[in-house]
């Protein structure tokens, strides 16, 4: 009975620890990418530092992708993430990097940490070198 108890609560605490790390990584990545997308804009044109609906949707996608590790469901999860990102972009008119954050969450959820890091670095460089639109 003791072995069963230790195994159950050991996996429970390990899962929450990993989920907390993913939450902090996604939060930090979202804040950095949002700051980069807003840094060359006038204060009037800047959006919030963190789009809460975008962050919550991306974290939900991370949790869904974390628990569905099947070949057929991967494509469905990615397509749903892109549809959610498109919905947020069209309805909110935000300048936040919604698509990048959703894809970052899906890659982290699938356990593709190196791919998530490469996507983040590429987005960071792209947003760092981009110019604002002249009005």
Secondary structure layout:
Elements: H1 2-38, H2 52-67, H3 71-92, H4 98-109, H5 113-129
Helix pairs in contact: 1-2, 1-4, 1-5, 2-3, 2-4, 3-4, 4-5
Describe what you observe in this structure.
This protein has 135 residues and is mostly helical. It has one domain (23-37, 47-129). It has helices at residues 2-38, 52-67, 71-92, 98-109, 113-129. Helix 2 runs parallel beside helix 4, helix 3 packs antiparallel against helix 4 (98-109) and helix 4 packs antiparallel against helix 5. The chain is elongated, with a radius of gyration of 17 Å.
Bin the helical content.
over 70%
Distance between the termini: 70 Å
Low-confidence stretches: none
How many separate helices? 5
Question: Would you report the number of β strands?
Answer: 0
Query: How are helices and strands ordered from N to C?
Result: HHHHH
Q: What is the percentage of strand-forming residues?
A: under 5%
How many domains make up the 3D coordinates?
Answer: 1
Overall average pLDDT? 79
Shape type: elongated
What is the SS-derived class? mainly alpha
Keyword list:
elongated; 5 helices; 135 residues; mainly alpha
What's the quick description here?
The chain has 135 residues and is mainly alpha-helical. It is built from five helices and no strands.
